[in-house]
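Discrete fold record:
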Amino acid sequence: MTALTQGRIAVTGGAGFIGSALIWALNNRAIEDILVVDRLHADEKWRNLVPLRFFDFMDADDFEDLLLRSPKKLREVKTIFHMGACSSTTETDAAFLMRNNYEYSKHVAQFALDHKVRMIYASSAATYGALESGLSEERPLETLRPLNMYAYSKALFDLHAQREGWLARIAGVKYFNVFGSNEQHKGEMRSVVHKAFGQILARGSVQLFRSYRPDFGDGRQERDFIYVKDAVEMTLHLAECGATGIFNIGSGEANTWIDLVSPIFEALGVPSNIEFIDMPESLRPKYQYSTRAQTKRLRESGYSAPITPLHDAVLDYVGNYLTKGCYLEPRQAVAP
């Protein structure tokens, strides 16, 4: 077992979507000795940090420099949640992705292993490629065929960690379709919930892709959607229980796009109005019609909390965050 209160916690990508949600969940456990590591550019992700409580902030390049040249300056760090990466599935700069997602991850992992630091890192469900069944961590990593450069950069680190024997000492988490507050800065990488909310406010309707397979009706294509609040609880559990290897982080259920967007209309008190539009020709050959995480390994690790039902998760997200323009804000700190 790993006590997250023993030593400082570093969260790379800590200003981002899942990283800031992790800090929120840690703050709710009265944990504030946190080093936030990220690159703040011209977007608005810095706003995710405003309500959060942490020890210090460090630029990602400065953090890497310490990892490589002055690791003793990080001797207080006992746990690393390595969430930092370029997560754009449309990024085409392969050299950037290899440097930012692959090489950087190797440096973080080597530091963690050399200094007996607990490490949980973000892989991605995108590493499964076009698979629509058998999305299990037991599937051999070398058989996976990612469909974009982002997914390949993640898969390559998984393979490297396996080859070096690191997966016996660290844990990787494959996030499925995560949605929730603090994703506002992600542009086109925002969840469909966030995009649909804006569409409904602007024109009273939501656009979904038509189906091009007879076994799936329009809008009946399926995904494993997981609320960010559940995703970070699963991640913290794996850190605390000492789990190693790769774990799927998902609901374990397949829900349709209609299931996803319908509660948005309900939360806003407006009639459901879904328009089906043509899917771009370039997307059709590699479009997945169904994904569902197999979560057996997660449950076997001792995670027993129920999954927030999709309907309830969307209502919470829309009603308590999107309509109010709110970010994840921790509960009031408990006085010592």
